[in-house]
Design goal:
Radius of gyration: 19 Å
Largest sheet: none
Oligomer: single chain
CATH superfamily: MFS general substrate transporter like domains
Pfam family, one: MFS_1
Mean pLDDT: 89
Distance between the termini: 44 Å
Number of domains: 1
Number of strands: 0
Structural class: mainly alpha
Low-confidence stretches: none
Strand content: under 5%
Keywords: Membrane, Transmembrane, Transmembrane helix
Transmembrane segments: 7-25, 45-67, 74-93, 99-122, 134-154, 160-179, 200-224, 230-251, 258-277, 283-308, 320-341, 347-365
GO molecular function: transmembrane transporter activity
Organism: Caldisphaera lagunensis (strain DSM 15908 / JCM 11604 / ANMR 0165 / IC-154)
Helix content: over 70%
């Protein structure tokens, strides 16, 4: 019976993640439509992606604590409604201000849902944490892979926004109603203790700098590629989203066997290679490598937090870790869009430098 419940919660997590992915990995498909429909510039639209990273991460600190203490059901239902209102709101948006407002509102809901879904895996699958967390995170690429061709083929952002918003409003509250966390057999350190340790801050800043390439690609791949052929652009964006999802359970499973730290090291080194390839204008292969290995970093860091600090307060602890995405979002959103104007070469060097810092910080984790 317990195994059946665990499978149910894992399934809920995957489906929730499929919807969550539309905020990040459908952005490349949605942003050109938004720029055209709202008569906005690249940097004005990129600012909305930065808002997404800020609100989706900050909301997790409060939402994650509530989920750890009270359980995921009620806060999950509330967050589901917020997430759906993000898309329904931009369907109604007439200008940038209303778009920013609704996108920020929806991003807050998405952030809490992301953390609940991830920690259904972290808490219920302690022995196979890397694989389970990666499998849930696979949904974060899968949903966008399915939706992106439909979004790209749309003439306006309004039709896909309405369909996505209504789908979320119907499906997500029902799923979250059946969610719960285990109440026995788990232990761990409270966030107030965790954030006083040296290990925490090394992991935190390593995470920030290591995921900048992923967020840069997520926010600006359609502009990086300069691809005018709609079919080829759809293939590139969908391939990036798919690879960022499919690598998560595979690399997560490897981390259960090889070890979390070693798997993180290898993955970050490969992201560095992907960044170098971008600087020499190998955009497609760069997007594939960064999607595959940088996408896998997020569940690996979540699992590492559970390994090092325990699973009892993992939603709270990972929620605080995920606030680093707000900083990474600034570096991969607004900052990257400004650097991109200067050219592909300098953009690749920027991503290389950021990831190298993340690697060095992770190396310091093993030095006492």
């Amino acid at each position: 019976m317990r195994d059946l419940k665990k499978s149910l919660f894992l399934t809920i997590g995957i489906i929730v993640m499929c919807f969550n992915s539309l905020y990040q990995y459908s952005w490349n498909a949605l942003s050109p439509l938004l720029a055209k429909g709202l008569n906005a510039s690249i940097d004005q639209i990129a600012f909305a992606f930065t808002l997404f990273t800020i609100f989706s991460t900050i909301s997790q600190v409060i939402g994650g604590y509530i989920a750890d203490i009270k359980g995921p059901k009620l806060i999950g239902i509330f967050s589901s409604i917020l997430s759906s209102l993000g898309f329904l709101g931009i369907y109604l948006s007439k200008n940038l201000i209303s778009f920013y407002l609704f996108w920020s509102l929806g991003s807050s809901g998405e952030g809490i849902l992301y953390m609940i879904a991830s920690n259904l895996a972290v808490k219920w699958y302690q022995e196979k944490r890397g694989f389970a967390t990666g499998l849930v995170s696979f949904g974060f690429g899968l949903g966008a892979t399915i939706a992106n061709p439909f979004i790209i083929s749309s003439k306006s952002f309004r039709e896909p926004s309405l369909i996505i918003g209504l789908s979320e409003l119907i499906v997500l509250p029902i799923l979250l109603y059946f969610s719960e966390y285990p109440t026995k057999g788990i232990s761990g350190l409270k966030p107030s203790i965790v954030i006083t340790t040296r290990k925490w801050w090394l992991i935190y800043f390593s995470y920030i700098f290591s995921v900048v390439p992923l967020l840069s690609m997520s926010s600006a791949l359609s502009f990086i590629s300069r691809e005018e052929n709609i079919e080829l652009l759809a293939v590139l964006i969908s391939a990036f989203a798919f690879m960022s999802g499919v690598g998560r359970p595979i690399i997560g499973l490897i981390s259960d066997k090889l070890g979390r730290y070693m798997t993180l090291m290898i993955s970050i080194i490969l992201v560095i290679i992907g960044s170098i390839l971008l600087s020499i204008n190998q955009i497609f292969i760069s997007a594939i490598i960064i999607g595959l290995f940088d996408g896998a970093l997020i569940p690996l860091y979540f699992s590492l937090i559970g390994d090092v600090f325990g699973a009892k307060y993992s939603t709270s602890n990972n929620g605080i870790l995920y606030t680093g995405k707000a900083i990474a979002g600034l570096l991969g959103g607004i900052v990257f869009s400004l650097i991109l104007i200067k050219g592909i070469f300098i953009s690749g060097i920027y991503l290389f430098s950021s990831t190298l810092i993340g690697l060095v910080l992770l190396l310091l984790l093993k030095i006492k």
